[in-house]
Amino acid sequence: MSLSVEALSVAIGEKRLLDDVSVAFASGRVTAILGPNGAGKSTLMSCLSGLMQPSGGRVLLNERSRDEYERRDLARRVGYLPQDADVHWNVDVATLVGLGRFPHRGRWGETPADRAAVARAMAATDVAGFATRGVSTLSGGERARVLLARVLAGEPEWLLADEPLANLDPAHQLDGLDALRRVATAGAGVIVVLHDLNHAARVADDVLLLRDGRVVAFGPPDRVLTQTLVAATYGVDTHVGVTPGGRRFLIPTGRLA
Predict the structure, then answer these.
(1) What's the CA angle centered on 49, arms 113 and 226, to 5 degrees?
(2) How far apart are CA 257 and CA 254, in angstroms?
(3) β-strand 64-65 against 56-61: which pairing, if any?
């Protein structure tokens, strides 16, 4: 399974949101996309998911143009959790998570495999305990976990998540990172937009740094999350260290002049 972009560009009027971006993502790995506000992170995710058509270049899924796929087939292969995902009706949690199985369902409706996938997704995101609650009764963090569960329930070949940890407390942020890691370990590709450099250092096999719609660097965290490249991307000085357990960490210490 492969997913890549070739010379991808997106322009709105005179403003270029993406400029000649070429990246090959790998299945079975977690790729974290990082960059300052306005770097083009969400625009790239929208192009990968099919919600936005690029001005130039192309998106390839398994070496075929994404546009060649029938919409239902694409929905089975690519699951997308947008940054501002919301729910506009008050269904219960289990029903909402079950909607993630919709692209897989045939004429006979829900199957045991569908129910098992929903159960696994709810367990992975720690939402099984409020399966019968209405979505409108949930906190922002609870709702974020339910929406992630809905995408996980579809068991896509590629999981795209745009800032899925934004409304979560620290414990559930770690749970979310672990859930993404398990998806990749099972063989799917995971592409996730993050703001926290340390979350990326913790979960990512590869890191894509973007600035002003262009690629600054792409590769393993120990080669990309460096003082020099973080400075070039964010304009900040950073202390890079290693915990006693061998985990890399980064602390921004100030803006560069």
Answers:
(1) 110
(2) 9
(3) antiparallel
